[in-house]
Specification:
Layout lengths: L2 H9 L5 E5 L4 H12 L3 E6 L2 H11 L3 E5 L8 H11 L5 E4 L14 H29 L2 E6 L12 H21 L4 E8 L5 H9 L1 H10 L8 H12 L10 E4 L8
Parallel strand pairs: 1-2, 1-4, 2-3, 4-5, 5-6, 6-7
Length: 258
């Protein structure tokens, strides 16, 4: 087998069952599509049934969806059991769902702060715990957290988001140290500024900010959702079988601090 063929086979996710939270739009949808193109059956999770169904249809027969709010942590075991019965035991979990809050720290209320933590930290942990229990029985699995550059350096007016994404990195390291003995790897990516519908709208309203972002990014462009998807697919594949507990920036060099 040639090297090129070997590399393709290492990244092929045939027979894998993947769950992607927030999988119906933006980066989550790109990740869902990327995993399906690598051979995995993908379950898209989110709160809006219509959006999820449309996203699953756009991916094709490899995709299905489940309405689920990650903040409702008490339902994580039942969700994993339901997916296992309907699709198969999950071997991949992508913790991508999140909410954002842009507000000065001194004006951020306890309720606003708690809502961000509940989604990114408590919700992601509950789902990871439930999925990892099943993965451990199979002696295989990959969990990937979609963290942020806000966990790497200080960004003003996103105190709750920064705290949540930094906490995710702690979860990754602790879970990786415990779960790897059961054959379950846990990693994270830290995306930089990515070109999505949401970011496009924000930059259209603030062209000066877009220029500052490009000046901060050595590659001098925004990232594409599919570039995030390809890295996630790599981390879930056999090509990354010895990669565990890492936080991989995917940011065009923005975090190098030039």
């Amino acid at each position: 087998m040639g090297q090129e063929s070997q590399n393709r086979s290492q990244q092929w996710l045939e027979d894998q069952i993947a769950i992607v939270t927030g999988g119906g739009t933006g980066i989550g949808l790109a990740i869902s599509l990327g995993l399906s193109q690598a051979g995995a059956r993908v379950v898209l999770l989110g709160r809006r049934e219509g959006v999820l169904q449309e996203a699953a249809r756009s991916i094709g027969s490899q995709a299905t969806c489940e309405v689920y709010d990650v903040k409702q942590t008490a339902g994580s075991d039942q969700l994993i059991e339901r997916i296992s019965d309907k699709v198969g035991t999950p071997t991949i979990l992508i913790n991508n769902a999140g909410i954002h809050l842009k507000k000065p720290a001194l004006e951020t209320s306890d309720e606003e702060f708690d809502a961000v933590i509940q989604t990114h930290v408590n919700g992601a942990f509950a789902l990871s715990r439930s999925a990892a229990r099943r993965m451990a029985k199979l002696k295989q699995g990959s969990i990937v957290f979609v963290s942020s550059m806000a966990a790497i350096f200080g960004i003003p007016q996103v105190v709750a988001y920064s705290a949540a994404k930094t906490a995710q990195i702690g979860l990754v390291r602790a879970l990786a140290s415990e779960c790897s003995v059961h054959g379950v790897r846990v990693n994270a990516i830290a995306p930089g500024w990515i070109e999505t519908e949401m970011s496009k709208k924000a930059f259209d309203q603030d062209p000066a900010r877009r220029e500052r972002v490009l000046q901060r990014t050595p590659l001098n462009r925004l990232g594409k959702p599919e570039e995030i998807a390809s890295v996630v697919t790599f981390l879930c594949s056999e090509a990354a079988s010895f990669v565990n507990g890492v936080v991989l920036p995917v940011d065009g060099g923005a975090s190098i601090g030039f």
